[in-house]
TrEMBL record, chains A, B:
Protein residues bound to Mg(2+) 1: 43-44, 121
Protein name (record): Thiamine-monophosphate kinase
Extra remark: Reaction mechanism of ThiL seems to utilize a direct, inline transfer of the gamma-phosphate of ATP to TMP rather than a phosphorylated enzyme intermediate.
Organism: Richelia intracellularis HH01
Residues binding Mg(2+) 4: 27, 42, 73
Residues where Mg(2+) 3 binds: 27, 73, 221
Amino acid sequence: MKISDIGEHKLLQLIYKYCPKDAVGDDAAILNPIPDCSLVVTTDVLVDKVHFSKMTTSPFDVGWRGVAANLSDIAAMGASPLGITVGLGLPGDVDISWVDDLYQGMTACLQAYNTPIVGGDLVRSSVIFLAITAFGQVCPTRIIRRNCARVGDAIIVTGQHGASRGGLELLLNPEIGSCISYNDQQVLINSHLRPKPRLDVIEHLWEVLNSESLLSVAGMDSSDGLADTIQQICHQSGVGAVIEIDNITFPPVFHQWLSKDKIWEYVFYGGEDFQLVLCMAPKAAQKLVQKLNKNAAIIGVITEGSKIILQDIQFPEKYPDLVISRDRGFQHFAN
Amino acid sequence: MKISDIGEHKLLQLIYKYCPKDAVGDDAAILNPIPDCSLVVTTDVLVDKVHFSKMTTSPFDVGWRGVAANLSDIAAMGASPLGITVGLGLPGDVDISWVDDLYQGMTACLQAYNTPIVGGDLVRSSVIFLAITAFGQVCPTRIIRRNCARVGDAIIVTGQHGASRGGLELLLNPEIGSCISYNDQQVLINSHLRPKPRLDVIEHLWEVLNSESLLSVAGMDSSDGLADTIQQICHQSGVGAVIEIDNITFPPVFHQWLSKDKIWEYVFYGGEDFQLVLCMAPKAAQKLVQKLNKNAAIIGVITEGSKIILQDIQFPEKYPDLVISRDRGFQHFAN
């Protein structure tokens, strides 16, 4: 059955299933943050045929990814999520089940973090789009900013990088995965379709900061790629960095699947891994890595100047003072 | 010059002009509400060729209307605005000046209420769309809800109704306005293109409630039409109403321009006047009407039951117990 068969009221009833009862039915939703918290707000928009394809991406995965991208930004500010609103544009010929599955994907990702859908708007459109705004709360002294990395800070990276890009490649060209196991393929594809925002890191981070009496942490999420993330932090903080690329973690299966150059391309420029890059005093950094059960690594150090130098101890002659370039970033409107 | 000529970074720089410096440049924006306030959140999406036409509506007006619709929802909850985020979908062939004018329209409407654009997302799309999310704050005992109108409450309506619908008609068919003055035409068109959210009413309302020691007010904004608004409040509160249609204010020029039936059609079903409909004890209602300098009127009373009866004292035989019908509402996905 299509959306145009049931009209707006019935479609809204379907969507209300996924919202807390007290959130819907008025001009706006009400949330009650903890007193004295700052409010964190972020917006992310996905458009059919630009950020996903209705033909090849399941609505469940579109919903999950849309939510994950927003919650990752909340985590990247050091905040806890309070709720999201959903602006949804739909052509009349979209199946009702597609919309239902979209909301199932959004709530599946939200449930892990007890975060409700508190409002939204449903509109007719010639193209499907999903505009999510997420709200979170954070103690004002605990905000993670991009512009406060200091010389001598250790640079921590959580999780693995390049996995999402590898998964995307397997979705686009399934035949190139024939040399790696089905299980390895699924793990990579899942990294791309169902990224997990690293809100779990934040509580460990505060424990470490409390024990070290540290006042601030610099950082952001790596959604636009690890290279861009390190660039942004250094640029906004007015510092440089030395990165030991041997300390950066990527899926072990890359060794049997990709050339070394391709591995670094995926790791640095792949994007959408939604991990966190955090800069703090070395002692605190070591404690955090331990707390995260080695699901994080110190990959370098913040330096004076503005250069970001990549060092490879194993192959010093192959990557001699390679500098991360800025102009490889994806531009939405480039010709 | 087109968007595709300059790329995303330069377009973002253009947009950053319209945002406070400390709001942009990180994963999310930070806002600091007054302690112990509840957070109010609302979203509204406009799509080209559905809610406006890029061909006939200026980008300034699209921006103004998008902001006004959201701030009206904030006012309708009794809240003060804190900020908005803007999700913007753009085809590459849109003129840069169109985007600049859009932001000028948004900020022009926001400036009257000291409300900043604190974040957003800019994406490529085959159709222009504008997804605005607005945040406000309200003392928890001051929230205006739809579901708490009580039998005996007076029903206040602010401003005039039908003006926006009249303005739309003049935009669609300019020739039909030949019998009214140019000035009257412009006032109606302006009501449609530049509606003003009634945040100004809220402070007067609290003064009255404080002086009357009233604990709650029911209400909402009339963006979906006056008939739908009264319906919603009555339905959600489990009450009925008697409306004296002679007390409802509409633009005086309607008398020389429209038939009586047409007048009531515009007034009750036109929509987008973005006025407030508020229900409270009669004494408080009278005080509020006085404070608003008669830019508001008591149009009826909340009754037991569920019927909404329209009375016309001047023409009792023409509108004998006319009941507002629910099925005239606009449905976005109707065939």
